[in-house]
Every structure is written in structure tokens, then in C-alpha cells.
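Bumping my old thread because nobody answered last time. Still need a sequence for this structure:
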């Protein structure tokens, strides 16, 4: 298998994103509805979903061209470079 290293990297990134999503859901479930973490990371927080989708697309396309896994892994990192505006707004308001 010539694409094994890229495929393992893509699977690893997928599990990291899945575990981050589950961590966020667990933290929100442990806090009341009006908690700060629910206000910031509650609704409309799409970064984990985007990351998981990019990983899955990269893995599927990587079956045909293994470099696509690395390309989509890079695309996956782009939203995480940008600061979360809702955190800044919440901190400025409180």
C-alpha cells in the first residue's frame, strides 16, 4: 500500500477532530444553559464539523490520489488559524 502513511495521518486527524467535538459536547452538557462555555461554543459552532467533513472527503479522494489526504489536512487547518470571534465578543461584553 503506497498510500498507507497518508491514510493513517488522515484517520488520525479524523479521530482528533471527533474527540474534540465530543469533548466540547461533554463540557457543554456538564454546564447549565446560561454558562459561558454554552454561550461561546454552544450553537452554530461548525469548526469541528467542517474539520471532520474535510477529513472524510480527503480520505475518500485519497484512495485515488494519496496526496489529497495531505491537501485536505492543510485545508482542515485553515479555520483553526482564525481566532474565534464569539470568544472575543463574549470577553469584551463581560
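Sorry it took so long. Here it is:
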Amino acid at each position: 500500500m503506497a498510500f498507507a502513511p497518508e491514510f493513517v495521518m488522515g484517520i488520525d486527524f479524523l479521530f482528533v477532530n471527533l474527540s474534540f467535538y465530543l469533548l466540547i459536547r461533554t463540557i457543554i452538557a456538564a454546564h447549565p444553559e446560561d454558562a459561558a462555555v454554552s454561550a461561546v461554543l454552544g450553537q452554530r459552532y461548525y469548526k469541528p464539523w467542517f474539520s471532520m467533513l474535510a477529513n472524510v472527503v480527503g480520505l475518500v479522494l485519497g484512495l485515488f490520489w494519496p496526496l489529497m489526504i495531505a491537501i485536505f489536512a492543510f485545508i482542515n487547518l485553515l479555520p483553526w488559524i482564525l481566532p474565534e470571534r464569539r470568544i472575543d465578543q463574549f470577553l469584551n461584553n463581560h
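The radius of gyration is 16 Å. Let me know if any region looks off to you.
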